[in-house]
Amino acid sequence: MNFAVLSSLFIFFSLVCFQRLSAKTLSKNEGKHAWFPPRGWNSYDSFSWIISEEEFLKSAEIVSQRLRPFGYEYVVIDYLWYRRKVEGAYTDSLGFDVIDKWGRMAPDPGRWPSSNGGKGFTEVAKKVHNMGLKFGFHVMRGISTQAVNANTPILDSIKGGVYEEDGRQWTAKDIALTERACAWMPHGFMSVNTNLGAGRAFLRSLYKQYAEWGVDFVKHDCVFGDDFDLNEITVVSEVLKELDRPIVYSLSPGTRVTPAMAQEVNGLVNMYRITGDDWDTWGDVAAHFNISRDLSTANMIGAKGLLGKSWPDMDMLPLGTLTDPGSNEGPHRKCRLTIDEQRTQMTLWSMAKSPLMFGGDVRDLDDPTYKLLTNPILLEIDSFSTNNREFPYVTGMNGPRTRKQILSQGIRTFLTKVDKSDTRVLGLTSCKDSKPNGWSIKTLDQELAQICWNDNSGSRYLAPYCLYKRKLPLALDAEIIYKQKYGGKHHLLATDGMELCWDASPKGKPTSKEFNRGSFSPCKWDANQMWELNNNGTLLNSHSGLCATVNAVQDDAVSGGIRSWIATGRKGEIYLAFFNLNPVKTTISANISDLAKALPGRNLKVGSCKGSEVWSGKDLGIIGGSVSMTVEMHGCALFVLKCISSS
Fold first, then answer.
1. pLDDT at residue 438, rounded to an integer
2. 117, 488, 545, 552 - which has most CB atoms within 10 Å?
């Protein structure tokens, strides 16, 4: 029997075992929120916002037939399902949305005909459930600008009728925080005042309606990362606890997320994005290595979540047939990642136990993409592995090398040899973090002052990073309003010319690779540009409630080098992944004795392991002192090792 036949049989039996073990284990945890990283399909990468009911249900049917046996159980409609698909409508257009009399979004009946008569997504959810799947959709923060402009009444979903308090009825304009519009969709949505009973009542009415429609999954956007709104997240989480229907709660986006920010939300939610949008570029894939490492180090993988567990979400898998970001087109092009880059993405996502949400067009699911999505070893790792973390004890050399050459010629260790850059960027983090307490004020004259970051890197060559604070000239009535709303807060200027002010959140929706170096735009009275310097040295933003930091950036952090991850299987096997971020082939090695440094209670010696490599199908036999493989540029190797621990 040749190697190809043996390899096919191995994959077949692995798949059968995975499905049987998965079904048994998953059934034991039925009813627990996100006990394993959620898995499914989302419409955004292939349809942007323009998907119709017919297209969605056809896609759901294919997911049910081809992907559900592998644990892909959620089908999710992404954003703007309430926007009419007419000329002039796009991501941030105003006046094209369908809302009900209570200011709540309703499906566009032109694209979702079963919603006619106020049915919402009830009929769609029923059909999805009949396919054995779970139904989800995307929602934005707070309340829509359209509802505020119409000043719709607030529904009291507990008593029925208009919400009343303090002897009056409440409306959209009473609860809207117009200065806290979504930074990347400023004409679309804004926060609500959750300190008001009416604000909380509005959010409660939304999520009670979603439960009535039969929703199982909600992706809540413009509330995390740079757009952090902990108050709204907290209120929504409390409402979801009260519902009879379990709903998995997911946050987006994840621009500039830090472990401290993740620790503030993990107990309130089930998933939270940790980067900007991930698209099919190598830069986007590579941008996930640092943040996934940091969150695993902080023990955030599978931490306590809303009525179950929570998972750092590395975003959708943009594989197969796709559209373009923010497009008004449906699927029309193929994924631009090479097969090696796709394997790297899927392997990293699985080793970091990210939710797996496929984004490509399932109606055009090619065989290589299908095999990658359903690889039984990757799915086993994603669902059931433990001790998942970056493994720093790896070495690499460019170009193919024999083991003898590696040992004799010397080794370049990427993780300990990185050229530092003097580039510094503005960032945001939780004010509970210890990092942001480094700001102080320096007065230059009566009108002008600098707010400077005190660099603690120890470098003698870096001048302080400073922004300018100056009182802007205002008309008398505007000055009164400003003092009432923003007393003690101020703009931060890029130069003393006062032309541009620092935005806490970017005006566009950045992708994962677009590391935000500080966004400056014309100054205006917007909470996104309002900052308050506190006595403890923190610089607080009024839009997100996050604090400013200045970070040194290593320009080559994701442009090259090697990385590795390690995890333990449920039968004691060891999963070891090598990742080559270099633009050339690189031989990567790890000593067997070093594996125990990352695995509690394991003591491994030379000759104690045998194993195989997943992508090549190579049987490694009994492994000597080290495991080594030449990895293609931007590619990976994934080893399954069975080791005997010595006493």
1. 84
2. 545
Instruction: Answer yes or no: are the C-beta atoms of 450 and 494 closer than 8 Å.
Output: no
Kindly state the DSSP code that residue 33 receives in the 8-state scheme: B
Count Cβ atoms within 10 A of the Cβ of residue 416 and give its class: 0-12 exposed, 13-18 middle, 19 or more buried. Answer: exposed
> Could you tell me the maximum CA-CA distance found in the chain, to the nearest angstrom?
89
- What would the 3-class secondary structure string for 245-289 be? CCCEEEECCCCCCCHHHHHHHHHHCCEEECCCECCCCHHHHHCHH
pLDDT in tens, 467-496: 888 665 555 555 556 566 666 777 888 776
Parallel/antiparallel/unpaired status of strands 217-220 and 609-613: unpaired
Q: Which residues of the chain are modeled with pLDDT < 50?
A: 1-12, 14, 16, 23, 26-30, 400-422, 458, 460, 515-516, 554-558
| Contact between 570 and 471 (Cβ < 8 Å) | no
Q: From CA 327, how far away is CA 337, in angstroms rounded? A: 19
Residue-wise pLDDT for 53-95, tens only, equals: 999 999 999 999 999 999 999 999 999 999 999 999 999 999 9
Q: Report the distance separating Cα 45 and Cα 280, nearest Å.
A: 10
Rounded (10°) angle between helices 230-242 and 197-213: 50
| Distance separating alpha carbons of residues 411 and 637, to the nearest angstrom | 19
Q: Which helix (H) or strand (E) holds 402?
A: none
**387, 598 in Cβ contact below 8 A?**
yes
Answer yes or no: are the C-beta atoms of 76 and 391 closer than 8 Å: no
The CA distance from 333 to 572, in Å, is: 42
* Strands of 395-398's sheet in order across: 395-398, 586-591, 626-631
Q: Which helix (H) or strand (E) holds 187?
A: none
Question: For the CA atoms of 222, 89, 284, 11, what is the dihedral angle to 10 degrees?
Answer: 100
Number of H helices, E strands in the chain: 17, 34
Its pTM surpasses 0.70 = yes
The DSSP output letter for 217 is E
Q: What is the pLDDT of residue 512?
A: 64
What 3-state DSSP class applies to 614? coil
- Compute the radius of gyration of the chain from its Cα atoms: 26
Q: Is the dihedral of CA 200, 206, 212, 216 positive or negative?
A: negative
Contact in structure between 614 and 346 (CB atoms under 8 Å): no
CA neighbor of 175 nearest in space, from 147, 215, 135: 147
Length of the chain: 647
pLDDT in tens, 374-385: 999 999 999 999
Listed residue (581, 623, 619, 639) closest to 396, CA to CA: 581
Three-state SS for 299?
coil
Q: For the sheet containing 609-613, what is the strand order?
A: 386-390, 562-568, 574-580, 636-643, 609-613, 619-623
C-alpha 610/C-alpha 627 separation (Å) is 10
Q: List helix spans (H) across 475-578.
A: 476-486
CA–CA gap between residue 635 and residue 318 (Å, rounded): 17
